[in-house]
Amino acid sequence: MIVLLVLAGCARSSPPDWRLITPVGVTPTALFVGPAGIVVGGADRTGPVLVVRDDRRQAWRGVTVTPATGYGRMATLVHVAAAPNGRMVALGTVAGGAHLNPRWTAWIGDPSGLVEEPQTVETFGGPDAGGITGVVYGDRPGVVGAWSLSPGRTGVAVWARDGATWVRQPAPPEFAGSADSIPSATAATAVGPSTVIVGLDTVLVGGGVEQRAVLWRSDGTGWTRTDLDGPNTAATDVSCTDTDCLVVGRRDGTLAGWRVVGDRVTAIDLPDRPIDRYTAEPRVARDGPVTAIAVGDGTGLLTRDADGPWALSSTPAGEVRGLGVRDGAIVLLLRDGTGAQQVYLC
Q1: Are 209 and 202 in contact (CB under 8 A)?
Q2: Element (H or E) spanning 72, and its range?
Q3: pLDDT digits over 139-190, tens only?
Q4: DSSP assignment, residue 25?
Q5: What's the CA angle centered on 272, arms 289 and 291, to 5 degrees?
Q6: In a 3-state reduction of DSSP, which class is residue 239?
Q7: Which of 60, 74, 200, 244 could form an SS bridge with 23, CB 3.0 to 4.6 Å?
Q8: CA-to-CA separations, 105 to 108, 112, 166, 208, 334, in angstroms, rounded
Q9: Could you tell me the CA-to-CA distances from 289 to 57, 60, 203, 248, 327 in Å, in that order?
Q10: What is d(CA 232, CA 345) in angstroms, rounded to the nearest whole number?
C-alpha cells in the first residue's frame, strides 16, 4: 500500500484525524515537495501520470504527460524533482525486454507539461547498471544512481543532461571506493549549483562487514566526501539549505542524525528510537523553522519548530518512501503490504 499523507495540525493532535484525498485513478509512486509545490508522480490505467497540488483550491491538477516511446507510454513515474522556478525532471520505469529488466524513461518539463526525451537502453541500464537512487533539479537537472566500475564492484554515479541526452559523468575518486569498500547512494538533493548525495560505504574489515555514513557534495566543478560517523552507521536522507544540511540515518539499531556545515559535522540530539539496523530508511524534510523526521516504519513522526523540543506523533503503519514540508504542512509517502494505494489529508 502506498499512502500519501498531508499533515497540518496532525503532529499536535491525538489521535490524528486523517481524510482520504486520493487523486482519482492515480497510483502515486513518487513525491517531491518544494517551492514549486507538492508534486506526485505515478501511473493510471492509461500510462504515466503527474499531478500538482493546487494550494488555493486544495485540489490536485493534472500535468499533461507526453510520451515519445512505447516504454514511455507504459511507464510509471518513480522519481520526480522540481526546481524553485517550476522546471521538472522525472524518471519512469517499466519492465521490458527478454529478461524483463527495468526500462528507464527520461522526462523533462514544467507545470504546463512533461515530455519524454528518448534515451538508449544503455543510458541508465544495460549490463553495467547498478540502479537509480533519484533525480534532483537545482540550476540543472541531474540523476543519481550506481554503476559498475570493475567486475564485481559498483560505485556512485551521476548523470547530467546535455541537450536532450543524458550523459553519465566520469566517476571521481570520491565515488569509486576501493577493493575493500563499496560506496552507495541512498538519497540526493540540490541547492543551486550544488548536488548533495548521502549514503554509506560498505567496508570489509577483518573478514566482516561494516557500514559507515557518508555525504558527497559538488561545487559545480568537483566533489568532496565527508564521513559523517564511525562504524555501523548509514545515512538515508538529506535536506539542505544554503547554509547547512540535515542528514538522518541509523547508528547500530537506533535513529541517528547529523548537521553538516562545510566539512564540519555535528551529531543531532534525537529521541531514542529503535529501528532496524540494516533496512530502516528514516527520512527528513524541512521548510522554514519546521523540521520533520519520519522514523522509517510509518509508526513515528518527529517534528519540531525552530530549535524547540521534538514532538512524536503517529502515522499509519507502513514503510515511509518520501517526506516533505511546505508552509507548515507535512507530506508523507508511505507504503504497506495491503496492495491499496491512497492519499490522506490530516
Answers
A1: yes
A2: helix 70-74
A3: 999 999 999 877 767 899 999 999 999 999 998 888 877 778 889 999 999 9
A4: T
A5: 10
A6: strand
A7: 60
A8: 10, 19, 11, 38, 24
A9: 25, 26, 37, 17, 10
A10: 36
